[in-house]
């Protein structure tokens, strides 16, 4: 177990904000986690569990306990002629899981290549890209209730997945700490290629297989998104808003054709990046904070930005979109502080 006081979180958040935690506690296994949860000091302190910090915005130093898992490992839990179920430690890097699956010929998550962060968080966030969400392969999630310290295994249905949401993200539910995630993958080729420019990118390859799909996704992402190692960012800052069909038709008659994705007879999803671009923010700088020149949905730390400065830039974007379109953008990034 690792216990550190006044611990720098710079390497634990992809905005690379220079913030500190009063305490940083990292556990290697479930027994160590239980010890921490039973500790009186821990129980009296405010705390937050983090993964790789790729979806967090620290507004300042954290005056409490930052918990982090070091439970790793990918094990085959079950195998049939057609599928395999993997049990994965929550701290396993998500992209390492994808690389493992592709290498072994297991399909289902290749479109989720290169998404930063850890597997536990991926199951909380219901990460998604190129027409696939992790919920499509989730079999179960093992988690500890932080209040009564009882372990529960959630079925996929009990995880209550939605767009970038789950039971675990709902603040009205008890806080849970995820220790393991089980996903079921196919041993037969089954690909999702209809989304975005994936098919177009794949036309440069001589055949369509798992390795080439992963390489194509990585190539598209590297071209479109800033690498957090080079420029601090947390990916998409806002979620894509879902509006009613009535609202969409009204917007269309006022502003002309809108990029959109029909979710149902009554609802439409609009790309938040497009709305932000239309408000003139793309590629613009606000002091130490920038709006990425290739994708307006991404805010970047241009150097020494603070969490407050990033939050302020996000708020001015949110207000501009609200004023012009009457659409209220909701941050995908979680504010901590
Ligand atoms: C360049 C870039 C590109 C991205 N692209 C995508 C994308 O295509 N699709 C997408 O969906 N997301 C994307 N993201 C967002 C991000 O990668 C995901 O949200 C990711 O799942 C966050 O993982 P993390 O380990 O960094 O979690 P963190 O940011 O550390 O935490 C996220 C949430 O999970 C909680 N948490 C973490 N671990 C645990 C645990 N073990 N138990 C309980 N709670 C926990 C935290 O409290 C927090 O609420 C991108 C981010 C970046 C920087």
Break the fold down into its secondary structure elements and pairings.
Layout: E1 2-8, E2 20-27, H1 30-38, H2 40-44, E3 47-50, E4 56-58, E5 62-69, E6 74-79, E7 83-89, H3 94-103, H4 119-125, E8 128-129, E9 132-133, E10 138-145, E11 151-155, E12 176-186, H5 198-202, H6 210-224, E13 233-236, E14 242-244, H7 245-255, E15 261-262, E16 267-269, H8 272-278, E17 285-286, E18 289-291, E19 298-301, H9 307-325, E20 334-336
This protein binds flavin-adenine dinucleotide (FAD).
Would you mind describing this structure in some detail?
- There is one protein chain.
- It contains nine helices and 20 strands.
- The protein has helices at 30-38, 40-44, 94-103, 119-125, 198-202, 210-224, 245-255, 272-278, 307-325, and strands at 2-8, 20-27, 47-50, 56-58, 62-69, 74-79, 83-89, 128-129, 132-133, 138-145, 151-155, 176-186, 233-236, 242-244, 261-262, 267-269, 285-286, 289-291, 298-301, 334-336.
- Strand 17 (285-286) and strand 18 form a beta hairpin.
- The two termini are 25 Å apart.
- A five-stranded antiparallel β-sheet has the order 6-7-12-10-11, covered by helices on one side. A four-stranded mixed β-sheet has the order 1-2-5-3.
- The protein folds into three domains: 2-69, Uridine Diphospho-n-acetylenolpyruvylglucosamine Reductase, domain 2; 74-224, Uridine Diphospho-n-acetylenolpyruvylglucosamine Reductase, domain 3 (2-Layer Sandwich), CATH 3.30.465; 233-336, UDP-N-acetylenolpyruvoylglucosamine reductase, C-terminal domain (Uridine Diphospho-n-acetylenolpyruvylglucosamine Reductase, domain 1).
- It is α+β, with helices and mostly antiparallel strands.
- It is globular.
- The chain binds flavin-adenine dinucleotide.
- Flavin-adenine dinucleotide (FAD) is lined by residues 14, 48-56, 69, 90, 115-118, 120-122, 124-125, 127-129, 177-178, 225, 228, 233-235, 334.
């Amino acid at each position: 177990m690792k216990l550190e006081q006044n611990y720098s979180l710079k390497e634990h958040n992809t905005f690379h904000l220079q913030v500190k935690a009063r305490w940083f506690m990292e556990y290697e296994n479930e027994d160590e986690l239980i010890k921490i949860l039973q500790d009186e000091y821990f129980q009296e302190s405010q705390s937050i569990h983090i993964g790789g910090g790729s979806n967090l915005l620290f507004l300042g130093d954290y005056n409490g306990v930052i918990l982090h898992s070091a439970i790793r490992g990918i094990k085959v839990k079950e195998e049939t002629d057609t599928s395999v179920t993997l049990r994965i430690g929550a701290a396993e890097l998500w992209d390492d899981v994808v690389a493992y699956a592709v290498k072994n010929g297991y399909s289902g998550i290749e479109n989720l290549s290169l998404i930063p962060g850890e597997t536990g968080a991926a199951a909380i966030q219901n990460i998604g890209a190129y027409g696939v969400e992790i919920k499509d392969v989730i079999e179960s999630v093992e988690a500890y209730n932080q209040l009564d310290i009882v372990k529960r295994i959630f079925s996929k249905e009990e995880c209550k997945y939605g767009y970038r949401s789950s039971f675990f993200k709902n603040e009205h539910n008890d806080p849970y700490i995820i220790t393991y995630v089980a996903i079921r993958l196919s041993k037969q080729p089954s690909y999702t290629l209809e989304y975005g420019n994936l098919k177009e990118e794949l036309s440069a390859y001589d055949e369509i297989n798992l390795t080439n799909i992963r390489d194509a996704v990585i190539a598209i992402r590297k071209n479109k998104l800033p690498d957090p190692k080079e420029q601090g960012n947390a990916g998409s800052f806002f979620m894509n808003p879902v509006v009613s069909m009535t609202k969409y038709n009204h917007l269309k008659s006022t502003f002309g054709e809108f990029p959109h994705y029909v979710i149902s007879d009554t609802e439409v999803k609009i790309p938040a990046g497009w709305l932000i671009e239309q408000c003139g923010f793309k590629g613009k700088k606000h002091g130490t904070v920038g709006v990425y020149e290739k994708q307006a949905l991404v805010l970047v730390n241009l150097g020494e930005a603070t969490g407050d400065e990033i939050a302020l830039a996000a708020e001015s974007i949110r207000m501009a979109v609200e004023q012009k379109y009457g659409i209220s953008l909701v941050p995908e990034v979680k504010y901590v502080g």
